[in-house]
Amino acid sequence: MAGRTSKQTVGALPDATADSPFAPVALTWLVWSLFAASLAALVARVRLGFAPELPGVFAVDGLTVLLWVVVAFFAGVVLSYSRRYMAGDAHETEFSLAVSGFAAIVMTLVAADHVVLFGLLWLAMGLVMAELIGTVDEWEQARTAASVARRYFVASSALLGVALAALWWATGATTISGVAANADALGGPVWLVAAVALVLAAMIQSALVPFHGWLLSSMTAPTPASALMHAGFVNAGGVLLLRFAPVVTVDGTLMLAIVAVGATSALLGKLLKATRPDVKSKLACSTVGQMGFMIMQAGLGFFGAAITHLVLHGFYKAYHFLGAGGEVERTTPGKKAGRSTGGSGLVDVVVTLATGLAGGAAFVLLTGKGASADTGLLLALFVTFTTLHAARGTVRNASLPASVRYGAVPLVFLPAIAVYALVYEAISAVLSGLPVVTAPTELSALHALVAAVFLAAYVAIEAGVHERSRRLYVALLNAGQPSPDTLLTNAEEYDDGGVQ
Question: Is residue 218 part of a domain?
């Protein structure tokens, strides 16, 4: 009736501790217990050199214990969050079992030394993640999204299988450590097949362009599954490259190609993000870009920096996915976001350059990377550039007056890059026993070209140059589309299956 208003009443959030099935509760406690045990293993590794092994099958090293801690932590957070998010849902127990199984598979994977075991666990990891994407199997779209992801993951596993078979043929070794020990003898067509297959497998798993379709089609996954996917699963590409660093570092040309591949995904991820209308798909495009940066760092020969990036990105992306509902509330239609940090012209340029130079100098002093004319200089440049960009974005979203923003950017950026450098140093120390953690090469004209093109393109994107071309916008819009059969077009469909 005209003039009549109604007040919508929202009930209390479900109590996750009441009427909860036994399995989710028990699995949550189990995973948090694994986290505590992983922390103890990490401390034992650092203090006592803890390195148990089952020769030819398993070998625990610095990467293993570090990722045990990270994986168990994210799985514990996701399971705890899911206790309320999935409360009363028909899939609650199934979902908890899948998350716990995923954590167990990944924790076993990072300790696996036998190449067959490693390959099988890599396949199992992908298949379980596909099941998480299709959790709400009452939705045809969810089943399709799971099928799309499964095809990508099986392709990644097939490529890894080709690589492992080629490496066994070339070295006669059936273990990852054996391959690393014989890496000096690698070369020729067999090595090239193995190396290219490894890079492609990593690209698919990390959703780099042009293999980003499975990630953009995974929006049917429950939000905690998305958090686990973006905080953990996509990082597997960087882990794979580090495990087989002695293989991919054999030739400098391949390493440069990895840098170019990463730079391309970093740029296209940022461009694709600008065309997406919803929070989750924007976060997915952001992940494509961030995984590009991770692969770039590996290509520069700084595998420890790549692992640092995946760990920090994992925390960042898990926070944003689990808080996606709050992000929607903060960006209501009444709000308008601008690109500017609050100022323009000479003052903004001077403040930005001075802040960047100070932060870059701090990174060099704290890590020693970038002090010589090798790829460490590019590492320092890219870390400084991306951290500065993130700091400016944080300040921009704070809606501060222009005069305050100029001072706020250094206050956010300088501590952030110092933390990045210190975490990098700590992680590099934990990884120190691996065959290859750092393998910088001399700078070449091609390195300079890739860096110049990347920086020019990034600045152009920030200036909005891409928005002036309708043709480019349409191309980006099409490139960022998920598989059409995974789209939920009817709002009522969200009520099916009981998932919120």
Answer: no
Q: In the structure, what pLDDT confidence band is assigned to residue 400 with cuts at 50, 70 and 90?
A: low
pLDDT above 60 for 18: no
Q: Are 92 and 58 in contact (CB under 8 A)?
A: no
Yes or no: say if 387 and 359 are a contact pair by the CB < 8 Å rule: yes
Find, among 263, 333, 331, the residue nearest to 296 by Cα: 263
49 assigned to some structural domain: yes
Q: Is residue 475 part of a domain?
A: no
Q: Which of 81-90, 169-178, 393-402, 439-448 has the lowest mean pLDDT?
A: 393-402
- Assign 402 a pLDDT band (cuts: 50, 70, 90): low
Angle (CA) 274-279-282 rounded to 5° is 35
Ramachandran angles phi, psi of 309, nearest 5°: -65, -45
Average pLDDT of span 311-335:
66
Can you tell me which residue has the tokens 């953690």? 437
Q: Among residues 74, 80, 4, 69, which one has the least CA distance to residue 37?
A: 69
Inside any domain, residue 94: yes
Residue 285 CB burial class (10 angstroms; 0-12, 13-18, ≥19):
buried
Q: Write phi, then psi, for 311 (nearest 5 degrees).
A: -70, -50
The angle subtended at Cα 211 by Cα 305 and Cα 295, nearest 5°, is 10
Give the CB-side neighbour count of residue 43, counting CA atoms within 13 A.
6
How many structural domains does the chain have? 1
User: Which residue type is seen at 322?
Assistant: L
Please name which of 61, 114, 440 lies closest in space to residue 249, comparing C-alpha atoms.
440
Read off the pLDDT of residues 112-121 as tens digits, 9 standing for 90 and up. 999 999 999 9
DSSP 291-333: HHHHHHHHHTTBHHHHHHHHHHHHHHHHHHHHTHHHHHHHT-T
Give residue 76's domain range.
Answer: 21-113
Q: 341: pLDDT confidence band, cut at 50, 70 and 90?
A: very low
Q: Which residues lie across from 302 on neighbouring strands?
A: 438
What b/e readout covers 190-223, taking b as 16+ CB neighbours within 10 angstroms?
ebebbbbbbbbbbbbbbbbbebbbbbbbbbbbbb
Categorize the per-residue pLDDT at 340 as very low, low, confident or very high, splitting at 50, 70 and 90: very low
